[in-house]
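U., I forgot to send this yesterday:
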Amino acid sequence: MNYSDSILENKLFNLFKQGLYYIVLSIIIILVGCLVLVYGFHFRPYNVLTNSMYPVYGAGDLVVIKPQSDYNVGDTLKFDHNGTPTLHRCVAKFEYSGTIYYICHGDNVQNLDGSDADQDWRDDVEWINNKDNIDIESMTPNEIETQLGINAQVVSENKVEGVAVTSFSRWGTYFEFIKEHNVLIIAIVISIWCVVETIQNETEIKRSLRLM
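Result:
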């Protein structure tokens, strides 16, 4: 290998190191940004699991959830329903025994009146308001949920984690992978960095010996 080849090889290593440096820096910025959002502004990331809210949110989307003291009809709420994390639209709101409850269901599931899912969710608000056999004022939350059927959930305010404020298409899949394998990813990046440093040092030594 002549002197020009050695210089070219050294430049390639420097470019590779620079690229790796930016990758590591990007990961650090993302992690710090997530910490700031979570602990500074109380936002929560959520990976959408199904297409029940399609086309607004699809499976694999990353949705940013913000806790609030109160929620309104039309909000997309993140809540726990029978142990299952769920992201559905609030189509009604009522109070029972001093506790606020929200009636929710997905935009992409069969509407509460049995019609096709492509109807606007506002139709369900109208349907609930006009349904004779559902008296929100006198029925218990369990009775209301039973009457509405499997497509709806009646959720108490203490089960609601927040409202969806924005989303990033398909980022949820990557977020889950990084969250589940963050130690492995960091270990791989550090290992690659150490290997590159070792190879570059050896190359510098060999080039110095040739110049002596």
